[in-house]
Amino acid sequence: MVRAPCCEKMGLKKGPWTPEEDQILISYIQKYGHGNWRALPKQAGLLRCGKSCRLRWTNYLRPDIKRGNFTKEEEDTIINLHEMLGNRWSMIAARLPGRTDNEIKNVWHTYLKKKLKQNQLNPDTKTQISSEKSKCDANTMRQSSEPVMRIENQGHTPVSPQQSSSDFSSGGADSLNLDSSATFPAIDDSFWSDILSSAETSDVLEDFPAMELNPELQFLFSPVSATSDSVCAFGLNTNEDKDMDFWYNLFIKAGESLALPDL
DNA sequence: AAGTTTCACAACCGCCTAGGC
DNA sequence: GGCCTAGGCGGTTGTGAAACT
């Protein structure tokens, strides 16, 4: 890929935005929208690159951005989601209306990480996090209005012929919401044996003739929820397309016979 | 009061992916 | 299928403010 010349070489400005520049950008977007970020600065009369304009707008100027300190609830939500999702700031931000991924990333690195560390060193102060964490427990999720079941593709690669990749990547945890009354089976030996025996009677193996039905591969398909004993969230620990396709289809087939919640 | 260190956060950088051609 | 671009993402840096010595 050919990298675009940097801003400085193009005679474009870098560094902090001035109030005047902000005003120009806001006015332009309010009037014309932001269909093409690359063309925007030229049309708006800004000596900035499109990327800089986009970041300034999405991280700072957007009207729906919530300014000010994070509430206790927001902090706890970030901690819980980070435990489940890792450094996927955009996915975390998607569940915190008005907060940007950049803001969440900053607050994590400057404050929450330390807070969490302190709590781990001092168990007496851990109660709040533990109690918040329990909100993500499988049993709670079963009754929650926002169940968190999802199939997560850590390799950001399409995993299913039936379902487009955008269903996984763009919506994140929100993309596969289920009926809140859905129930989830426990992940234990019988769960895996049921999955595998179900696969033997399905056509999944015909679609993936090169794939061995090896129970040891179940590590590729593991729970990433706050608790590890229930199928309320999955992570697929592989970047191999064939692995992901295989396990996705296997799960779908098994889901049919095991009456798992619809995906 | 002055110098130094730490903190917070805006902004940038480089990589990746989707989509158009 | 390959090339290219735009946009998105996470990691990192730069800088001003606050705290500390």
Structure write-up:
The chain has 263 residues and is mostly helical. The chain has three domains: 43 residues, Arc Repressor Mutant, subunit A; 65 residues, Orthogonal Bundle (Arc Repressor Mutant, subunit A), CATH 1.10.10.60; 108 residues, no CATH class. 47% of the residues lie in helices and 3% in strands. It is built from twelve helices and three strands; from the N terminus they run ααααααααβαααββα. The protein has a three-stranded mixed sheet, with helices on one face. Helix 10 packs across helix 12. The longest helix has 21 residues. It is elongated and about 55 Å long. It binds a DNA duplex (21 and 21 nucleotides) through helix 3 and helix 6.
Overall 3D shape: elongated
**Major sheet summary line:** 3 strands, mixed
Question: What's the number of domains?
Answer: 3
- Give the neighbour order of strands across the main sheet: 1-3-2
What percentage of the residues does DSSP assign to strands (E)? under 5%
Find the structural class using helix and strand composition.
Answer: mainly alpha
Helical content class: 40-55%
Helix and strand sequence: HHHHHHHHEHHHEEH
| Helix count from the secondary structure assignment | 12
Cα distance spanning the termini:
36 Å
Instruction: Report the mean per-residue pLDDT as an integer.
Output: 58
Q: Low-confidence stretches at least 5 residues in length (pLDDT < 50)?
A: 1-6, 124-187, 208-244, 257-263
| Total beta strands | 3
Rg, alpha carbons = 23 Å
